Amino acid sequence: MYVADSRGTPAPTGTPAPAAAPGARPGRRAAVAPTVLALGTVSLVTDISSEMVTAVLPLYLVAGLGLTPLGFGLLDGLYNGVSALVRLTGGHLGDRTGRHKAVAGVGYGLSALGKPLLLLAHSVPAVGAVLALDRTGKGLRTAPRDALISLSTPPEQRGRAFGVHRAMDTAGALIGPLLAFLILGYAADGYDAVFTVSACVAALGVVVLALFVPGHRTAPRPKPSPRPRPRASLRPAPAAPQADAGDGTAGDPGGTARAPDGRISLRASLVLLRRPDMRRITVCALLLGLCTVSDAFVFLLLQHRTGLADRWFALLPIGTAAAFLLLALPLGRLADRIGRWRVFVGGHLALLLGYGLLLSPWHGPALPYAVLLLHGAFYAATDGVLMAAAAGVVPEALRGGGLAVVQTGQALARFAASLGFGAAWTAWGERPALAVAAVALAAAAALSVRLRPADA
Amino acid sequence: MSSRLRLLALLAAVLVLAAVAGVAVLRAADRAEEKNRTQAGGPRVARGPVSLAADGGGRRIVFRNMAWGPHRDELATVPAAAPGGARTASGVHCLRFHSAAGTGVCLQSVKSAVQDGYRAVVLDAGLKERSRHPLAGIPTRARVSPSGRFAAWTVFVGGDSYAGTDFSTRTSVLDTRTGRLTASLESYAILRDGAPYRSADANFWGVTFSADDRHFYATLGTKKKTYLVRGDMARRTVTTLAENVECPSLSPDERRIAYKKRVPGLPADAPWRLYVLDLADLTGHPVAERRTIDDQAVWRGNDTVVYSLPGDFGADLYAVPADGGGSARRLMDSALAPAFLD
Q: Containing domain of residue A147, as a range?
């Protein structure tokens, strides 16, 4: 299925052929690479730490600091924009230095550093600054981490590897709030204890990363090519004609990525978009992202539709996360077997079905469960699976930056969708707005089926 | 590094970090326990009968007692003439409270194994529970109408945004006579500058009732602006009156409103000053308090407003003349959410 993986193509610029990924033992279907398990553990532990803080921050601001959090929420949108840009930087730095692990480590480290600083932050600007540090860390680490996962896994098992990682990540997100409220139950007003424990857990994540995640996976600075190709990075990728033969990344994975001095240029990540398969994946992710109603609105619609009591409202995100956790691995394996693109588009069809249920006259008691299951399935079929699909069309030397381009495009599209849906809700009311989103999603899904990358 | 060495390093890290985390939790638990011990020099608090009725015993203040000791966070009462005197504690715990004409509304936390929950409890004059209503978030404002018939409360709701730090508020109004609950004022029609207005981001907070048992005032927040609205419970509408007004509090003669005003140039985390608005011409003026206020003030008569500021043991109450003259002075230590009972 994955004809075009850079691993199978010659590397004329001197990029050493990567050693067989750990865990990919020939002749036996290994579970997942130890690197993936280690990164999954780091994500699990880090998510416990960050979700502990997220869960108690409203309480801390209102009860602990006596602040009104309304204005505080306004900072949030800003951070999401910053985070998207930092993500591109993180992916690129990983490629440029060939040290994805080190860049991810800095990202995890920055977030860990923020936790003890929360103890010193006693005003909204200070808490805001600490959260900005946290988001910067999250933005920096995401792309190099996903690059490491894809680089340590043979192409035919990437769906499964990302599935395992996302399941572990989500498990951490579910454990975090539980741990935080256990601490607050034991020590009333013990917000400082929550932050300290969170800091210790975050530090443990960095330790696990440092000890158990192998370092270099790509060559940082190969010897100059015997045939230098000046300005190669500015020309359309020579792979373009070959892509029609089903080989999107063939050709010269290293050469097009490097500036004349042999370094990987930031531009190279974007020039990747000239490759038809990369462009198709990114365009589809953008289009589908633009039709994705953000979680907050899905939960609000569900509540309005079912008349669900307010006290259950906070449980809705947990329902989605639980479905995500349970389905991430099975759907990742399915993606390996029947094709990532099918599962990715299928995930959006699950979301479309969820919209349909919200719009339909059906009013059974199972409605919230069905919608949350479909919502979680949507995440399970798209989050890691998209990275697995994208990894197949991005050459190794540009893996971090390439994945970051796709992720950033998707994140920005979803942000735009959130603004647009809010406006549509205001102008037309919730049901017409959802109906329009559903029609747009169906159209984008149909287009995505047609635009399917040659090898995903 | 060999895998044996790595495991040893991991074990060492786990031990050190677990020790730090354990000490932090134990210290916090110890500190929480300390709050249950009475502090020297604090107000005297003793258990006794507390009534919300006009019982002929003179004017009283009912409030949440914040003083450390066994009666911390309980509803307590003192004579209005001697606010610094001995306090009578009721045994009823409230985070936020308000009362009028023999009806009380108490927003309290409900401890459970996993996550703290909250509920609003309607109390009769003898502090007996009349009804209870689960809350979707952290309580912040509570009010009872002057007749005692209506109660309103506001909570902060998190989780409207997945894994974000976004907040919204939800304000509910209860008719204690019929039991009819308007779960969210967002179901009311909004008239802004005379035209119908709709927005998914509309939030309400801080209801204050008129004596006619039909109208109320509240804050509407939308698109980063706040408005004073006048609500009509019979028509289920709210109408905007003025901009930049938060947490209104209607005077007993219903001619003035005390409120928080966001003043340009103040720090982002402390942007409010306490103002008083004349309803006749909708003009506002600041009171003599120069510190930032984050509270829904209450009126002591028609001339004085009372509000809380952070204090050594949580919050202290202050009083200031409503006409902008005079100066602020401390009314009570370690107290929050007062109601004046005749």
A: 34-219+268-450
Taking the C-alpha atoms of residue A360 and residue A66, their distance in angstroms, rounded to an integer, is: 43
CB contact under 8 A, A68 and B20: no
CB proximity under 8 Å: A 397-416 to B: none
Integer Cα distance of B139 and B106 in angstroms: 10
Compute the count of residue pairs across chains A and B with CB atoms less than 8 Å apart.
166
> Is A119 within the bounds of a domain?
yes
ipTM for the assembly: 0.77
Best CA proximity match to A274, nearest among A265, A282, A262, A266: A282
pLDDT in tens, A370-399: 999 999 999 999 999 999 999 999 999 999
CB contact under 8 A, A299 and B159: yes
**CA dihedral over A180, A184, A186, A190, signed as positive or negative:** positive
Q: Do B28 and A311 touch (CB under 8 A)?
A: no
Could you say which of B198, B269, B310 has the minimum Cβ distance to residue A124?
B269
Q: Which two tokens mark A361? A: 């006259």
What's the average model confidence in pLDDT over A279-297?
91
Task: Determine the distance from the C-alpha atom of residue A173 to the mean position of all C-alpha atoms in its chain, rounded to a whole number.
Answer: 14
CA angle A175, A180, A182 (to 5 degrees): 95
Identify the CA nearest to B323 among candidates B304, B300, B308. B304
Q: Which pair of structure tokens corresponds to residue A433? A: 């707005």
Is residue A395 in some structural domain?
A: yes
Q: Does A244 touch chain B (CB under 8 A)?
A: no
List chain B residues with CB under 8 Å of A207: 9-10, 13
Structure tokens at B319: 């009083």
Q: Which long-range contacts (CB under 8 A, 24 or more apart) does B121-126 make?
A: B122/B151, B122/B174, B122/B176, B123/B52, B123/B92, B123/B99, B124/B52, B125/B51, B125/B52, B125/B53, B126/B51, B126/B52, B126/B53
Query: Could you give the number of structural domains in chain A?
Result: 1
CB contact under 8 A, A200 and B18: yes
- Taking an 8 Å cut-off on Cβ atoms, the answer to whether B28 and A125 are in contact is no
Distance of alpha carbon A422 from alpha carbon A416, whole angstroms = 10
Do residues B150 and B176 lie in contact, with contact meaning Cβ atoms separated by under 8 Å?
Answer: yes
Task: Determine the Cα–Cα distance for residues B117 and B110; give it in Å rounded to an integer.
Answer: 5
Contact call for residues A39 and A45 (beta carbons, < 8 A): no
Contact A295 B268 (CB under 8 A): no
Residues B105/B153, Cβ–Cβ less than 8 Å: yes
Cβ contacts of B225 on chain A, cutoff 8 Å: none
How large is the C-alpha radius of gyration of chain B?
22
Give A36-58 pLDDT, tens digit per residue.
Answer: 999 999 999 999 999 999 888 87
- The CATH number of residue A386's host domain is 1.20.1250.20
pTM of the model: 0.75
Q: Name the nearest CA neighbour of A340 among A385, A292, A295, A397.
A: A385
* Residue A171 token pair: 């498990």
The verdict on A178 touching B (C-beta cutoff 8 Å) is yes
With an 8 Å Cβ cutoff, is A193 touching chain B? yes
Q: Confirm whether A335 is domain-assigned.
A: yes
8 Å CB contact of B20 and A295 = no
Residue A224 belongs to some domain of the structure: no
Nearest to B28 among A67, A75, A193 (CB): A193
